[in-house]
Design goal:
Length: 255
């Protein structure tokens, strides 16, 4: 990470965990665990906990995000949530293109772009996820694939809007598996993403853009991963549900 050029962001992705009641209890533990952090701290909760999260984090350094958003403003999309609905709740961030959305819910690069654009147009900050499967890594196409995903996700996103975009590199083979990319592997792909951003937007925007690592970052490996020049934070899964572990990662990002 390079705090002189860009913001370090640690975001917890709770996935389908915690009732609103359980969320309130966890947030009470998180508040002292991340107090005074020298990085941006975000928790992305299930829709049912967003109101609770926004209320409980008022006056703290914790920002609230959603885990997905629909690309239309309103309409006959049963079960979906629009960007305006999130903004109205006081939500600041939203994750788009998470690998689980791609894997289980037929998300495509094109719908990720549409969701990202909708989020930005509503004033939200987007955490855009990209990453390869184990087969794709073994085939040696990691860089090509991640460049393609990133390029399509950012189609028609302006240089100005990039100030509200975070790219999260999350190798699919390292999510929820306990396997983690080495710090060198994470740096290599994050650097490739930044190189693409230079091509798309120029050096200034590329150097100002936060690029997170999102594959099983935990209390034990956060220091090493965050020590790499192009790893500007983490999108944290399982460890974000444990206040002590999440606090340890935030402390590593605050150095």
């Amino acid at each position: 990470m390079n705090k002189s050029l860009r913001k370090t962001v640690i975001a917890g992705n709770w996935k389908m965990n915690k009732t609103a009641t359980e969320a309130a209890a966890l947030i009470e533990q998180l508040i002292p665990a991340v107090e005074g952090a020298d990085c941006e701290v975000v928790i992305c909760t299930p829709y049912t906990s967003l109101v609770t999260a926004v209320e409980k984090t008022k006056g703290t350094n914790i920002h609230v995000g959603a885990e997905n958003v629909h690309f239309e403003k309103s309409g006959a999309y049963t079960g979906e949530i629009s960007a305006d609905m999130l903004v109205d709740l006081g939500v600041e961030y939203v994750i788009t293109g998470h690998s689980e959305r791609r894997q289980y819910f037929a998300e495509t690069d094109e719908t990720v772009n549409k969701r990202t654009k909708a989020a930005l147009e509503a004033g939200l900050k987007a955490i855009v996820c990209v990453g390869e499967s184990l087969a794709q890594r073994e085939q040696g196409v990691t860089e090509e694939l991640v460049r393609m995903q990133t390029k399509i996700a950012l189609q028609n996103v302006s240089a100005e809007e990039m100030s509200r975009v975070i790219i999260a590199y999350e190798p699919v083979w390292a999510i929820g598996t306990g396997r983690t990319a080495t710090a060198e592997q994470a740096q290599e792909v994050c650097a490739a993403i930044r190189k693409l951003l230079v091509e798309l937007y120029g050096e200034t925007v590329a150097q100002a853009t936060t690029i997170q690592y999102g594959g099983s970052m935990n209390a034990g490996n956060a220091d090493e991963l965050l020590g790499k020049a192009d790893v500007d934070g983490g999108l944290i899964g399982g460890a974000s549900l444990k206040a002590a572990d999440f606090g340890t990662i935030v402390k590593a990002a605050s150095k």
